[in-house]
Amino acid sequence: MGNTSTAVRTPRHPRARPRSPVSRSRRETHSTIRCRISFDGHELRKWSASVRRAPGGKAAGRKAGQSVSVSRPCVIDVLLPISRRAVPGRAAVGRAFPRGLLRRFRVNSRSVMAFRHGSKGTSRRWVGLVVGGLLALLVGPGAVAQGAAAAEPSAVRGAGDTRAAMDAVAAMQPGWNLGNSLDATGGDETSWGNPRVTEELLDNIRAQGFNSIRLPVTWTQRLAPDHTIDPAHLDRVEEIVDWALADGFHVMLNIHHDSWEWIADMPADRAGVLARYEAIWTQLADRFRDADPRLTFESVNEPQFNGSSGDAENAELLDVLNTSFHRVVRDSGGGNATRLLVLPSLHTSAEQPRLDELAATFDALDDPNLIATVHYYGYWPFSVNVAGGTRFDDTATADLTGAFDRVHDTFVARGIPVIIGEYGLLGFDRHTGTIQQGEKLKFFEFLGHYARAKNITTMLWDNGQHFQRTGFRWNDPELFAQIASSWTTRSGTASSDQVFSARSAPIADASLTLHPNGTTFTGLWHGDTELTRGADYTVEGDRLTLTAAALTRLSGDREYGVNAVLHARFSSGVPWRIDLITHDTPVLGAATGTTSAFAVPTDFRGDRLATMEAVYDDGTNAGPHDWTPFKEFDRAFAPDYDAGATTLTPEFFAEVDDGSRVTLTFHYWSGTTVTYHVTRSGTSVTGAPA
């Protein structure tokens, strides 16, 4: 994530039609197809290959019979003779040459790159090498023709080629971000408040069930004027990478906050930005050239540009960055010739125009070892609790399914793996309490389920607010239990995790709607005691009703607050917690203060604050986000239950008209509302109950 939270909304347009994966083969010749062969041996000495030409192109590769010596593992493209009547997609190659067989071979050397790319003038017209004798020994003379005859042109990009990448990305699920450490922009990795990263921390994260770790790194403050990375810093990054690999993690290493610190200035300084960017990746590619293939590189985090002319220029600039990153890494040879590389959309957005732009880059690069990445922080009003977005409702759900569907249809369905490189809720940047507990649990439960359904790998953003970096415990074990469960199964939930009973009124039956999510409700429990169906509760369809008798017994002396905790159990997943809460209408008191320090005395009386409206006497909206009367939780207002107060922030008063009375309506989770008046006069503020 960047240092600010913004929501980018762009208009949609029909997706660009993907180019056929066989189009280039058709341009070259109707008698050849492309395949990829890898050789495990460190050296393959003296082998011969015939030459084929593309129509109108120059010969690529060596003359037949000439010896070629290579000394390091890599991948080369070759062309195989097939029937002129069949022009298959690459899927045919995957069927003709079983995956296990192909993995037994490997070729790699910088000299091979000449065969792939040729000179600058012929880089897109090379055809490749024919290794017919070798292939005949491996699969027999009829295998190619048989596989080719069975194939049909496919819109799936490199179905056979990308299978290894798809499998690798699937193996990365689930993932975790080491946020606000190496990406901190201060003097060192502790400058944003997190302790120094230790091997023990990574051991403990691995023990939580995570299979991959994203290492965000900001390089700006560690660069010399000639763009050389501080050797000590690079050594430190390598040390953490090595710890992670030794723990069995897949690792994603990137350029992080540099995106907004200086890469964003690319519209005004293309040459300077590109030189710096390529210098960083050249050094990283060299340092990790022979690292374990479980190390992946991500070109840049959340790319963005300042002062551009608009979408077209933004797309072109990001394409330049992603393409230059790809070239620098691939040209470095060694393991980087086939290392998995991760390319983001603009802003790592899942909006269709941004996905189409990224898909065009993938088509142009035509590399099976690429991964697409976007970030997902939920429907923005829900993600930060603004504009009345207090619940994970149908609108918030549709935002998630729409984003994941678009990503799946644009990439996964075409054989291109996708990683949600960061996910969470933006309100967590303040604290995890900005979103009500039950609603956030439903969000994470559904996100994990839908990511699985769409074959998308996810990486939880954790800047220190989730897993304790030295205590090695989850700050919210209930939240993590829901997240971890979602990796493998669904959990039942309900319309709420709270049942309120007013102390000032007789206790009555109370109902919730169960959301089994494909599971089966099995019972209701209070601690280790199973409640009695019929006497303590009833279930009709998905409607769970707690009887007045059970509520009376469980609520005890009915002090304000949570009197009892129940758990609805389902046939799979984690149980759904239900708090039984006694409350009465909150009482607010008069107050005086300043725009920098103002709090409404509040006797919450067991209730919990959901949101706040702010309007002037003429009905227009007051305060920040004046397009909605509902203000942002914890930015405009915040409850302090221990202190018995509701704080109105300086941010709120900064956008309140001087001398104009504002009517505040506080909405509580019980359904109760209370109104209050505040008036700002210069820096002074007065308030009183309505």
TrEMBL record:
Keywords recorded for this protein, A-Z: Carbohydrate metabolism, Cellulose degradation, Glycosidase, Hydrolase, Membrane, Polysaccharide degradation, Signal, Transmembrane, Transmembrane helix
GO annotations of cellular component type: cell surface; extracellular region
Region (Disordered): 1-31
Pfam (any one): CBM_X2
Any GO MF annotation of the entry: beta-glucosidase activity
Highest taxon listed in the record's lineage: Bacteria
GO biological process: cellulose catabolic process
Family label: Belongs to the glycosyl hydrolase 5 (cellulase A) family.
Protein name in UniProt: Cellulase
